[in-house]
Each structure stands twice: as C-alpha cells, then as structure tokens.
Amino acid sequence: MTTRVPMTAVGAAKLRQRLQELKNVDRPRVIAAIAEARGHGDLSENAEYHAAREQQSFIEGRIAELEHKLSQAHIIDVTQLTPSDKVVFGATVCLADEDSGEELRYQIVGEDEADIKAGRISINSPIARALIGKHEGDRIEVQTPNGVKAYEVVEVVYQ
After folding, report:
1. pTM given for the model
2. Which stretches in the chain have pLDDT values below 70?
C-alpha cells in the first residue's frame, strides 16, 4: 500500500518545474556531451565520456525520484481551505516564545518543501506535529536539543 504524501500546490509546481528542466534541458545536454565524447575515440580511457555517463545516471535517477514523489503527492491548495483559527497542513502560524517573547512565523509544508530559513517547516518536524490541531491562544511544548521550549499560538493564517 502506498501512502499519500502531503504537499502544497506551490511545492508541487516547483517539483514539476524542476522535473521539466531535467527532462528538457539537462537530459539533452548530457546526451549531447556523451555523443561528443564518443567521437573522441577509445571509450575505455575517455574521462569525459565516463563523467557524462555518470551525470546521465544521476539525472535519470533524479527524474525517477521526482516522478515518484509527484505520483504519491496529496496536493493541498492552502488558498482553498476554509480559514479558521485551527492549525492544519499548509497554514502559516505565528508563535510567541514564552521565554524570550520572540515571535516566529512558520508555514507547515511537505518534507520536500521545508526550508527553515524561508520559514517553511516539514509536517514531520516536532514543532509542526505539536502545532497540528491547535488553535489561536493555545500553548504547545516542544522537546528541542536545548530542552523543552514553550510557545503560544498567536495567529493562524491561510495564504
């Protein structure tokens, strides 16, 4: 049985774009490099040929990986969700650190979309797991490497 993997519509579009780039730009470029390297003669000692074949193998593997991820994706368009104060996949959550008062803003996204510097955290991260199902005003505690951190859910936005 295959499990569906949640992914935002924006994340799925980026994966599709990368897949098309691999198929339409990278793959033909490598095929041309292999053909050119073949023209240089003896393949057993042709470093250019071996490097191009290795790159082709990597590209084909990446294409297969992206196709598989997209086929397993359960795409959720955050803009189509009914806005509420409840934290769900795709929501952007503003948190207040109860110790420092610092405010943090995270969007809960799929694993392949996560980028902490851009404020996107994986649905599988401890903080996202603690947030799912909570409402504005709720308090959560998350085990971190530096101990337990407490946060208050200040705002939930669907954008």
Report:
1. 0.79
2. 1-2, 42-44
